[in-house]
Each structure stands twice: as C-alpha cells, then as structure tokens.
Amino acid sequence: MRRKLSELNMIVFTFSRLSHLLRISGSKASVFRNGTEIKHGAGCCVQLRRFQGMQSNGSMNKKGLQDRQKQQMARGLPKQKPIRDVKQVIVVASGKGGVGKSTTAVNLALGLMAIDKSKSVGLLDADIYGPSVPKLMNLKGNPELNDDNRMIPLINYGVPCMSMGFLVQDASPVVWRGLMVMSAIERLLRQVEWGSLDYLVVDMPPGTGDVQLSITQNIPIAGAVIVSTPQDVALLDARRGAEMFRKLNVPVLGLVQNMSVFQCPNCHHHTHIFGSNGAKQLAETISVKFLGDVPLHLNIRETSDKGQPIVISSPDSPEAEAYRKLASAVIQSLEEHTR
What we know:
Blueprint: H1 2-27, H2 35-76, E1 86-93, H3 101-115, E2 121-125, H4 133-136, E3 154-156, E4 159-163, H5 178-190, E5 197-203, H6 210-218, E6 223-228, H7 232-247, E7 252-263, E8 270-271, H8 278-285, E9 290-296, H9 298-305, H10 310-313, H11 318-337
Parallel strand pairs: 1-5, 1-6, 2-4, 2-5, 6-7, 7-9
Antiparallel strand pairs: 3-4, 7-8
C-alpha cells in the first residue's frame, strides 16, 4: 500500500514538473525543433495521457463512491411505518413559540370529538423540551405499562394523552442532546398503547428541527396544521414551517390565525393587537387553505390555565365555536387531500 502511495506521489510530482516545462516550452518554440527535444516532448505527451487517464479513472471512482454513499444513506433512512391502530395523524406546528400552538392542538382534538361523537381522538405531546399537554389537559402521574411493555396513555375528557411531561417532574428541565431526544420520540411514537384511534393529534415543538424531521420520516402523516398570529414576525416563521412540510412531502392542511382580534370586555370594541388578516394573506400567497380565526380572549387563557379547555368548559361560547369550526375545516381539508 505504501509503495502504491509513493508511486502516486511521484506521478503527481512528475505531472507538476511536466506542466511547468510545458508552460516554458510555450514561450520557446524552438524547444521541439531538434530531434532529442522532440523525443522528450513526445514522452511528455505520453506521461500526460497516462496521468490524465489516471485522473479520469479517479473521477469515475469518486463518482462511484458518491453513488454508493447515496445508496447507503437511502437505506439508512427510517422507513415510514404507521402507528398501530391509528388511522390518521394530524400534526399541529408553528414556526416559532408563543403563538398558541399547544392550546390550539388541545382544543382541535376536543373539537374533532365534539363535531362527531363517533370519532376517537388521541393527543401526543411531542414537545420534549417544553411539554404543555399535562397542564392543559389537567393530567398528572406516570403512565403504566401493559403486558407488552407499552405505555398506557393518561385519559381526560375522553382523550388519551401521552407527553414527556408524564415522565419527568414538573420543574425538571429536559437537558438532552439530539440522540436522546430522538430515542424519546421513537418511544412516544412506537411504545404507546393508543388503542383504536381515528385521529392522533400531535403537538409539535416550535421550529424546524430534529424532532420534526424524525416524526415525518418515521410515520405517515395525513396533514399539517400551521398556527400563527397575524404579526409579521410570526408569519415569517410560519411560512418556513409550511415550506418545511412541503419539502418533506407532508400535506399542509392550512393556516390558523390565532389571537386574531381582541374584544374589550367592557365596551366590546375590537382591536387587532397583532395586526389584521396576516395569516389569511399568507395562506393566499403560498396557496394553502385558510382554516379560520381564533380570537384573543380572556376565557381561553383562563380555562387553559385551569386545565379545562374551553371546548369542554364553555361549549356554547363563541370561542369554543371557533375551535369547532377549525376542526370542521381540518376534516374538510383532509378529505380534499385524500381524494
């Protein structure tokens, strides 16, 4: 092996010297005119052709290596495998935090059940670093294991739920690197006994990172719901989120405009605190469906903090109606994408 490397180094050195000589000969036309020098010139050509042949072979070998690497990478990617007994997975995502994504996910799951009592809906909290479902659904405790060593979801309001928040203490931060996070996601996806579900709503972490890639590559997703406020800064990230799902071949069911308008409880005046119709305009720009508005209302915040989502605690309120309309729009969009 060392001998071959030595020979290759000599060839590279020879080629370098020959190139230098040829550059000199270009300025001295008489170099190739006498017999001896013509022989040297022919020898140079032979050496050059040999080296160029080696370069060509090297390029072909490099291309072949790249092709083999691509094939190996393709084989290494996880194959999508459906979650057992789950018919459709709906992910609720946002480009950034603080736009009400988790509250929307919880009330969407309850709204899907409210508009069709025959449907069974589960809720998966995939936000490893900041799980909110335990608080929003008023659930505490560790999940039990069945005989197959699969976790049994905690249930409230008829919705089976699973969250990283059930596996760590309330005030304990999850300080994990990527591989540990991926392992946790894999367990939440594959080692939970959901039972028979028509819809599994997944509350995704904000952003466009490892968790989003891991989930979309591991399971077939029926569609993604993007949540944003009308504010320009939030809309920039919402657009990135929508484009990410498109690149991953996940149908974007549409955009939700959360905190769209504030109504004063005293004079009932409407104020667009975060701007007006920003998400609706973005939906038109990127050619996705606009799923509806959810207002900025004190009742939504109070019921969420109490672990009593407004769809359950105040079903006759305009705010609960907004979430039920959202659920209907999501189902309609699902049907349109599956035709």
